[in-house]
Amino acid sequence: MISRNAPAIMRWATLAGLALMLASCATRYDIRSQTALNANLTSYHTYAFMAKPGTDKDGYKTITTQTLERAVNREMYARGYTPAAVGSEPDLVINFNIKEKDKVQGDGPGVGYGAGFGYGPYWGYGYGLGLDDYYNGIQTVTEGSLVIDLIDRVRNEVVWSGTAVGQITKKSLDHPDETLDRSVTEVFAHYPIKAR
Fold it and tell me: What is the mean pLDDT of residues 59-68?
């Protein structure tokens, strides 16, 4: 026999499952992109990666750079671009940069003002600052940003730049390739030319 509460229980179970799924998802990225004025991105056909991108500080190709190159190759190919042939000059040169910074976030002190009027002109002002609330609501998080620049090789100018900014979590540190791959996908979702 089906309980009269079955629809409510099913609705609750669905919402609980959705909440768990969302809680397990990786941090969302704040994506920004910018196209240079008068840039015609369809006029470019070939690309190559910068010989020493910002992700290679010590003179060798890092795993981070290799991961980014694979992901960007996929996204560029999906938009009709091809790697420049060996020995030929590319239309676009691609550079990467990754930065991180500590960021303080949380609820700051509560400040309130009040005014009142009674039988006479009695006004009062005041503010409150709860230090316990102030310190308990503050935390430091590490934020990472990935910047991908597409540079017109002839003019030596950036024609498009995409940035992903997000909180660095234990999951992103444990699975850096997945994190970088997903970041590249989300950045290129804002590229003016859509994937085919």
Answer: 94
pLDDT of residue 57: 84
Q: What is the 3-state secondary structure (H, E, C) of 36-78?
A: CCCCCHHHCCEEEECCCCCCCCCCCCCHHHHHHHHHHHHHHHH
Give the mean model confidence (pLDDT) for residues 75-96: 97
Distance CA 106, CA 109 (A): 10
Pick the CATH number of 27-106+137-188 from 3.30.365.10, 3.40.50.300, 3.30.160.670, 3.30.565.10: 3.30.160.670
In this prediction, what percent of the chain has a pLDDT beyond 90? 52
What pLDDT is attached to residue 171? Answer: 79
Amino acid found at 152: D
Confidence of residue 166 (pLDDT cuts 50, 70, 90): confident
Buried b (16+ CB within 10 A) or exposed e, 150-183: bbbbeeeebbbbbbbbbbbeeebeeeeeebbbbb
| Nearest Cα residue to 92 out of 186, 187, 158 | 158
* Number of residues that this document lists for the chain: 196
Nearest by Cα to 53 from 71, 68, 39:
68
Candidates 164, 40, 158, 44; CA nearest to 98 is 164
